[in-house]
Write a structure and sequence with these properties.
By secondary structure, the protein is of the alpha+beta class. The chain is built from 4 helices and 25 strands. The N terminus and C terminus are likely disordered.
Length: 407
């Protein structure tokens, strides 16, 4: 290999004067043993996804025109200055100068992983290494489900497998938008890892048609996921509605129409009406999901049940019928009006009495002091009690004297 490099080297460099023949350079490089600590060299570790491109850079902080070379993990020279002795064409020169040697490696594989050495031929020689780490995304992501079709209330098992990844992947579970917790096991084959996560899930009717998602967390891949839609069978859900009268009283002589609706998986195939704890009246007409009584009477009182069944089970819904008198609604309305009128009249009377009491109270409060003042008029300037009485009596000049005679 060195001989071939020797023949092709001068032509590639155009026979530049002042340079040693390539074979001699390689022999000199092999003879030198780096003894420095690489304090003048700079490089970084490289992490790359399998199949992508890795770029290795050997840089000199303080260049003195010393020779830079790059070696692979087997210490084979990849590049000596700008010359590539190694025949692997995946290595390509990106940049070469007195201060940097930058090389790209295309289509990276697991076999390319390891330490790559940057060497600087100074006195003494210096060396530093960079590590290439290769990431491998999962080859395949598969969900296995224990039962394709489950029945509500059952616990089913789901397994998600991420095959041949590096490093080992992390598996997360979601049911719709809710994250669930599974149990993972890791198997290692050579440098690869296979991860299987198990999820135990108790299903209900609300889970029918909901996706269960297996999602992978791995540095080599984003948004890798797979999903399975749950199929859950459940017994019917039954509902009875009153079509006529619409939100009204069920009164004697009027018709009644009920409708039964049932939903389930599979769809219910058997639906029937019955009267609980009694026989169905002969005048009741049942047509499919509808029940009709054209002329209600009080003997129709009772509980009417709609039953529906499918392969999973049976369910029912009840309707309690109470037949009122034919004028029940009208009499109730009249009583309501009478009570309203009476209540209004009472309120007006009470208000009027309160107003009258307030007026009278204000009147008496104003005239109470004036009454006593006129009665004692003329008594204020009297010297004694007798004079005050005489003056008070004398103050009533305009009044008619009353005389009393004793016999």
């Amino acid at each position: 290999m060195a001989g071939r490099a020797q023949r092709s080297g001068p032509a590639a460099r155009g026979g530049a004067p002042g340079l040693l023949p390539p074979l001699l350079l390689l022999l000199c490089a092999a003879a030198l043993v780096p003894t420095g600590d690489g304090q003048n060299l700079v490089t970084e570790d490289v992490t790359v996804v399998e199949g992508d491109v890795a770029t290795i850079s050997c840089r000199v902080k303080n260049s003195d025109d010393s020779v830079i070379q790059l070696l692979n993990p087997n210490r084979q020279t990849i590049y000596f200055r700008d010359f590539r002795p190694l025949k692997d064409s995946r290595f390509q020169l990106v940049n070469f100068s007195n201060s940097e040697l930058r090389v790209s490696l295309t289509n990276v594989s697991i076999s390319d992983e390891g330490r790559y050495f940057c060497q600087l031929y100074t006195d003494p020689p210096q060396e530093i290494y960079t590590t290439i780490t290769v990431l491998v995304p999962p080859r395949n992501l598969v969900i296995d489900i224990q039962k394709e079709i489950a029945v509500e209330g059952e616990e089913i098992e789901l397994n998600c497998t991420a095959m041949a990844s590096r490093p080992a992947t992390t598996i997360r579970w979601f049911k719709g938008n809710k994250e669930l917790t599974g149990k993972s096991e890791v198997e290692q084959w050579s440098d690869m890892y296979t991860v299987t996560s198990q999820l135990l899930l108790k299903v209900g009717r609300e889970d029918d048609g909901v996706p269960v998602i297996c999602l992978v967390d791995h540095p080599a891949v984003k948004d890798l996921q797979t999903q399975r839609y749950l199929e859950v069978m459940y017994k019917p859900q039954v509902r009875v509605s009153q079509n006529y009268p619409v939100q009204g009283l069920t009164r004697e002589g009027e018709p009644l129409e009920l409708t039964c609706a049932a939903f389930g998986k599979p769809q219910p195939t058997d639906m029937r009406w019955l009267r609980v704890d009694d026989e169905m009246p002969q005048h009741v007409v049942v047509s499919g999901s509808n029940l009709l009584i054209s002329n209600l009477n009080k003997t129709d009182n009772g509980t009417y049940r709609c039953e529906a069944s499918n392969a999973v089970g049976k369910s029912h819904a009840d309707y309690m019928l109470f037949v009122y008198d034919s004028r029940a609604g009208e009499e109730g309305a009249i009583r309501s009006v009478d009570h309203a009128v009476v209540g209004g009249v009472v309120a007006v009377v009470v208000f009027a009495m309160l107003c009258l009491l307030i007026v009278l109270g204000r009147y008496f409060a104003r005239h109470k002091g004036t009454y006593f003042t006129h009665e004692a008029k003329g008594a204020d300037d009297a010297a004694d009690a007798d004079t005050a009485i005489i003056n008070a009596e004398g103050g009533q000049n305009n009044s008619e004297e009353k005389k009393e005679y004793f016999i």
